[in-house]
Every structure is written in structure tokens, then in C-alpha cells.
Amino acid sequence: MTSTRAAEAARAGQTIAADRLYAKVARRLLPLLGLLYLVSYLDRSNIAFAAPNGMNEALNLSSSAFGLASGIFFLGYSVVEVPSNMALRRFGARAWLVRILVSWGVVATLTAFVTSAGQLQTARLLLGVAEAGCLPGIVFYLTLWLPKNVRTRLMAVFFVALPLSTALGAPLSGLIVQYADGLAGLPGWRAMFLLEGVPALLLAVVVWRALPDGPREARWLTEAERDWLLARVAEDEPEPSVKRRGAGWFTPRTFALGFAYFGIVYGLYALSFFLPTIIAGFQGDNGREFSIVERGLINAVPYALGAVAMLVWGRRAQRTPGAAWTVVLPAVLAGVTVPVALYMHGPLATMVVISVCAIGVLSAIPVFWALPTAMLGKEGAAAGIALVNTIGSLGGFAAPYFTGWLKDWTGSVRPGLWLTGGLLICSALIVTALRRGAPRPAEEVV
């Protein structure tokens, strides 16, 4: 009895030490990586705020032309995604992320000076090429530090940067558009592109100085902490039988994961790129007019709620990591509420339903990434994660383009958003089928 209690006490002490170490890693890495992702998402999505605040009029953009300019980012992003992540593994996370930051910062600032739809589309395409590899690179980088039993919860903490980029970025963009109008002779929407591109260049310096390539290079870890962490992460390697069935990255399972992520990303960007335009359409309801800053604050509400839901859901999902329902439930919630929003009357009811949709989409994203990071062996993880994100990122191209094209063709946003809801439901079905057919080692793979 005494020996049993002693063993239990030793295990409890080891758990406390492990929790402290993971907390230490999280404090060192997640704020910087989250800020990097926040800035990247802001630079790719701020075009949505520029559109109703002078850009579409200045460049004579139709809804479909705006959708193409918004979505073409993801064509460049997708083409370069896999080679970029393979280069990250070869050259190291720090050097390659600095390269990404510098190139995207330069392109983002130069977008302020486009004078035609063609130039805008070219700038957006180059921005996608420059930024390619950022998110999958970060996801892969975190697999070098975090074992699977804590990864889902801490990934949710990282991914909260996504809704925060809009919750904070939309009011910030509104302030810049309204109060920086005339800066260097530029209208507000151009000043927004210029000023919001600068943080990427500043972050390149910070990443070079502060981000280690992995645990071995982390001076803030003791030698014992490095060895323990590397050993714990190594335990996440699938069993040999699983490796033979799921090794590599160019597999049907990887493509299925990519198509599932496509539907989730489609829902995210259909919401992101057209919500500011929907809010601008509230003008005149009940005789109320909103300032640019007020519209930014309204736009932030669904994402602020989504940030809270993302953290809560990530913590809940950690109890059953990799379970299909943790992705399926929020995807279905978003898929159902997208078309419901079309039939609400009045700004308040519409925003309530849109907020529920945002909660569903945003909650699905971090828990989804528990699947590819666990289903792919280490030798295929870097390229496999990039391929999943490549296929998913095409949803970022398709969502604004087809939503805008369908609006121009039919005169209504309803067909485009019905399509969005359907794709989210399809993602839920794919994840359900994929997890039912996933091979299981003796220990849970996720």
C-alpha cells in the first residue's frame, strides 16, 4: 500500500513538473507566434475593410472583381505552400519565418500604391506567395515542442490570434481609415495598407533575435528540460504499423483532410471578406448612420465572441483529443447558421446569427489541426501539414470569388451563403468518415 501511494505521489509530482514546463514553453513561444499570425491574418483580410471605404469606388471594382482580388491571394499562397514548409524544415524555423515576414511586409506596404484592379490583383497574388508557409510552418514548429496530450489546448491559445486579428484589427483599420486620411497625401484606405504592412517588417527583427529553431537551441531551457521535452515529443511517433499505413504526405488521407479544411476555410473567408459590406448595408436602418470606426467595432463583435468560444472549446476538446465530434459539432453549427442569417430582419438579429456562425467556424479550426499533426508521421509531417493547408487555403480563394460572382449574377448574396453552409456541412461529414477509418495504434494517435 505504501509503495503504491509513493508511486502515485511520484507520478503526481512528474505531472506538475510537466505542466510547469509546458507553461514555460507556452509563455516563451505562443505570444510571439500568435502575434505573427495575427499580423499575417490582418494583412490578408484588411482588403475587406478597404472595399466599402473607398477602394472599390477608386479602383472601379464590381463584387466579382473584389472577390477575385480578395481570393487571388490564396492562389499564390497555395502554389508555394508545400515547398515553403519543406524549406522551413531544411533551413530552420527562425531563418525561414524571417524571410516570410520581410517579403510579405514589403508587398503589404506597396499595396497602398496600386492604381487599378489589375495592379491590386497582382499585389494580392504576390502577397500570397510571400506569406506562403506561415501558418503550416508555425503548426509544424509547435509539433517540435508540444506532445499530443497538450497540443490541442495550447493550439487553441495560439489560434485565438485569428479572431483577435479582426476583433482588434477592424477597429484599428477603422481608426486608420478615418483619422489617417490624407497621411502623405493618401486617402484613408491607402494609408491603412501602408501602416498595417509595417509590423511584419518589425516582427522579422524580433523573430530573428528571439525564436529558437527548436528545443535544442532554446537557451531558456535547462539541459534536463531539453532532454525531457525532446523525449516526450518523440513518444508521439506512431507505432511502426501505423507508419506503414499512414507514412508520407502524398496520401488519400492527407487529401481528405485538405478537403475537410477547405470547407471550414471557405466559411471563414466568406464571413471575413463580406461581413464589412453587410454591415455597411445596415446604413439607414431606423434612420441610423454608422461612422467608419463604429462599423469597425460592430465587425469586431462576432470575432471577440469567437475568440472566447475558441479557448473554451479547445479546453473541452483536450479531454478527447482528435475525436471527430470536436470538429463536427462547430462545423455543423456554422453551416446551419450561415443561411439562417439571410432571413433575419434588422441589424441586431442578423448580427446575433452571424456571431453564432463565427463561433462555430472559429471553434472548429484549432481542434481540426489535432488531426493532421497526429495522423502523419514525423517524416511526412512538414509537407503533409503544408499540403492540408494548401488545399484548405484554396477555400480562401473560392469563398470571396464565388460569393461575389454569385451576387453579381443573381443580384443577391443568398446563393453564395447557401453554398457556404453546404460546404461546412460537407466538412463535418468528411471528418466523421475520416476518423472512423483512421488506424489506431495501441495508444490513441491524437
UniProtKB/TrEMBL annotation:
Record-linked Pfam families: MFS_1
One annotated GO molecular function: transmembrane transporter activity
All residue ranges annotated as the Major facilitator superfamily (MFS) profile domain in the record: 29-439
Coiled coil: none
Top-level taxon of the source organism: Bacteria
Record's GO cellular component terms: plasma membrane
UniProt-annotated location(s): Cell membrane
Keywords per UniProt: Membrane, Transmembrane, Transmembrane helix, Transport
InterPro entries on file: MFS, MFS_dom, MFS_trans_sf
Keyword RNA-binding carried by entry: no
Name of the protein: MFS transporter
Species: Streptomyces actuosus
Lineage: Bacteria, Bacillati, Actinomycetota, Actinomycetes, Kitasatosporales
